[in-house]
Design goal:
about 120 residues; mainly alpha; 4 helices; two-stranded antiparallel sheet; 4 strands; two-stranded antiparallel ribbon
Length: about 120
């Protein structure tokens, strides 16, 4: 049951982002396909959400690096598009997203605080 809530929250959040930015179905579909793997990595404490809105490795175990890199690239593309649409810096978009991910975060997952330290929620 633990993985259902993150999937639902992330799906809703991604739907909003894609609708608001007009991103192609390709990015949306790729992110949807990766989501179960990402949730699994988060549940096992291997990856967490950084203070800049990307996935980061919490431990030295760098499992599924290709999945994490692909997710981060798609997130960067989305953040760049949002920044252009809102005429703000990508850093501001990243910080806002990181804050949102933490606020809506799942207990037991890791998040990076402002100082860069990993904390378990």
């Amino acid at each position: 049951m633990k993985s259902i809530k993150p999937l639902l929250v992330m799906t809703i959040a991604l739907s909003f982002v894609f609708c608001a930015t007009g991103f192609s179905a390709g990015i949306k579909e790729r992110m949807k396909q990766r989501l179960p793997q990402i949730v699994d990595l988060k549940n096992r404490g291997i990856v967490g959400e950084t203070n800049t809105g990307y996935l980061g490795f919490v431990t030295a175990k760098k499992e599924k690096q290709d999945v994490v890199a692909a997710e981060n690239q798609d997130r960067k593309d989305i953040y760049t598009q949002i920044a252009k649409q809102q005429s703000v810096s990508i850093l501001l978009v990243q910080k806002r997203r990181a804050a949102s991910l933490f606020s809506n975060g799942i207990t037991g997952h890791y998040y990076q605080n402002e100082a860069g330290t990993w904390v378990k929620k």
